[in-house]
């Protein structure tokens, strides 16, 4: 681990803080965007090694839109350089609604789907796993 940069995109201060603490303790440099718009701006500013993305923020599908924007296959996309940054989608939507979904290259292009609340060790395990698998 060489001070990899983790960007948390989540509108919930408590959830973001609960993730920030174990990530920083493990040596990661942590940034946060508190909305989908701010998160997309932060992607360009920070150039993160991994993104932890909430589903429901400004809208109930904001996280889906962010993932689709970041994984746009067009070379002319302003986010083309970030297309292969691992995205871990974090949500409690399966516990609060009857909706069921998971990673899907076309409709939900993320690397993993994590349920809230996530335990610190499970979060760190997923972060390590996806940073190791990240294309160079």
Q: What is the secondary structure topology, with strand pairs?
A:
Elements: E1 5-9, H1 13-25, E2 29-33, H2 36-46, E3 50-54, H3 62-70, E4 87-91, H4 93-96, E5 112-115, H5 120-133
Parallel strand pairs: 1-2, 1-3, 3-4, 4-5
Give a quick precis of the structure.
This protein is of the alpha/beta class.
Straight-line N-to-C gap? 15 Å
What's the total helix number?
5
From the coordinates shown, what is the CATH architecture?
Answer: 3-Layer(aba) Sandwich
Shape: globular
CATH class: Alpha Beta
Oligomer: single chain
How would you characterize the overall build of this protein?
With 136 residues, this protein is an alpha/beta fold. It has one domain: Rossmann fold (3-Layer(aba) Sandwich). The chain is built from five helices and five strands. A five-stranded parallel beta sheet has the order 2-1-3-4-5, with helices on both faces. Strand 4, helix 4 and strand 5 form a beta-alpha-beta unit. Helix 2 runs parallel beside helix 3. The protein starts with a strand and ends with a helix. 31% of the residues are buried. The model has no long low-confidence stretch (mean pLDDT 87).
Supply the key terms.
136 residues; alpha/beta; Rossmann fold; five-stranded parallel sheet; 5 helices; 5 strands; globular
